[in-house]
TrEMBL record:
<feature type="domain" description="Topo IIA-type catalytic">
    <location>
        <begin position="1"/>
        <end position="259"/>
    </location>
</feature>
<dbReference type="GO" id="GO:0006265">
    <property type="term" value="P:DNA topological change"/>
</dbReference>
<dbReference type="GO" id="GO:0005524">
    <property type="term" value="F:ATP binding"/>
</dbReference>
<dbReference type="InterPro" id="IPR002205">
    <property type="entry name" value="Topo_IIA_dom_A"/>
</dbReference>
<dbReference type="InterPro" id="IPR050220">
    <property type="entry name" value="Type_II_DNA_Topoisomerases"/>
</dbReference>
<dbReference type="GO" id="GO:0003677">
    <property type="term" value="F:DNA binding"/>
</dbReference>
<comment type="similarity">
    <text>Belongs to the type II topoisomerase GyrA/ParC subunit family.</text>
</comment>
<keyword id="KW-0413">Isomerase</keyword>
<protein>
    <recommendedName>
        <fullName>DNA topoisomerase (ATP-hydrolyzing)</fullName>
        <ecNumber>5.6.2.2</ecNumber>
    </recommendedName>
</protein>
<dbReference type="InterPro" id="IPR013760">
    <property type="entry name" value="Topo_IIA-like_dom_sf"/>
</dbReference>
<dbReference type="InterPro" id="IPR013758">
    <property type="entry name" value="Topo_IIA_A/C_ab"/>
</dbReference>
<dbReference type="GO" id="GO:0009330">
    <property type="term" value="C:DNA topoisomerase type II (double strand cut, ATP-hydrolyzing) complex"/>
</dbReference>
<dbReference type="GO" id="GO:0005737">
    <property type="term" value="C:cytoplasm"/>
</dbReference>
<keyword id="KW-0238">DNA-binding</keyword>
<keyword id="KW-0799">Topoisomerase</keyword>
<dbReference type="GO" id="GO:0034335">
    <property type="term" value="F:DNA negative supercoiling activity"/>
</dbReference>
<dbReference type="Pfam" id="PF00521">
    <property type="entry name" value="DNA_topoisoIV"/>
</dbReference>
Length: 259
């Protein structure tokens, strides 16, 4: 496990959380992890159950921690003020988020949709031809399937102006090369690619989580507030356990330890 993942389990042996039977009653399992960082927002999650679904995007760890600290100091801060700290989702494949309205709606209401677009560059070759270079893809877009889709559109003559398509990605990063026919306009072609392929997609945000065992749609501030409440409860439990153990330590040993 990575070092940060161990923070999910820290103090789990100090009665910080409750346990329940697993599916067949053969073992006991944690109801929730102690989680010394807001894992639900940092790593995101998605899932479907009967009549409900959750789709939470990942966020930048530092921003989320700063957001938690901010509301702990100022519980009355607004979501708009919080958005100055947590600026938006942070997708591992990078790409670009178009506009802020979708983010704002999701953070204020718990539901919203954002438009994701690949990061591309248009380069001019020495022979005068233009080349579209794809550097980053929208979240959850498969590179191989994207290339296959573009090739299919060209083959079926639904996309005109492409003379070559190749993948030059290496350990240094992604590089999908789309060569543009000399008499074609690269910007027009790129707009068609956005419309017909996964170079532009949408991501539906649904901040649905279990609160005291009940599904609830949360806004951004509520997500952080419930996390803070969980941490206070966990730390109180750990402190109570430590005090209980301390009562059973002989006075002479406690004095020696302090010395």
């Amino acid at each position: 496990m990575s070092k940060i993942s161990m923070e999910l389990l820290r103090d789990i042996n100090k009665d910080t959380i409750d346990y329940q039977d697993n599916y067949d009653g053969s073992e006991r399992e944690p109801i929730v992890m102690p989680s010394r960082f807001p894992n639900l927002l940092v790593n995101g999650t998605s899932g479907i159950a009967v009549g409900m679904a959750t789709n939470i995007p990942p966020h930048q760890l530092g921003e989320v921690i700063d957001g938690v600290l901010a509301i702990s100091k100022d519980p009355d801060m607004t979501i708009m003020e919080l958005m100055e700290i947590i600026t938006g989702p942070d997708f591992p494949t990078a790409g670009m988020i178009l506009g802020r309205s979708g983010i704002r709606k999701a953070y204020e209401t718990g539901r919203g949709s954002i438009t994701l677009r690949a990061k591309v560059e248009i380069e001019q070759k020495s022979n005068g031809k233009e080349v579209i270079i794809v550097r980053e893809l929208p979240y959850q877009v498969n590179k191989a399937k994207l290339i296959e889709k573009i090739a299919e559109l060209v083959r079926d003559k639904r996309l005109d102006g492409i003379t070559d398509l190749r993948d030059e990605s290496d350990r240094k990063g992604m590089r999908i090369v789309i060569e543009v026919r000399k008499d074609a306009n690269a910007n027009v072609l790129l707009n068609n690619l956005y419309k017909q392929t996964a170079l532009q997609t949408s991501f539906g945000i649904n901040l649905l989580a279990l609160v005291d065992g009940q599904p609830k749609v949360l806004n951004l501030k509520q997500c952080l507030e419930y996390y803070l409440d969980h941490q206070v409860s966990s730390l109180d439990a750990a402190q109570s356990l430590n005090l209980g153990r301390l009562k059973h330590v002989p006075y002479s040993r406690r004095t020696a330890n302090r010395a």
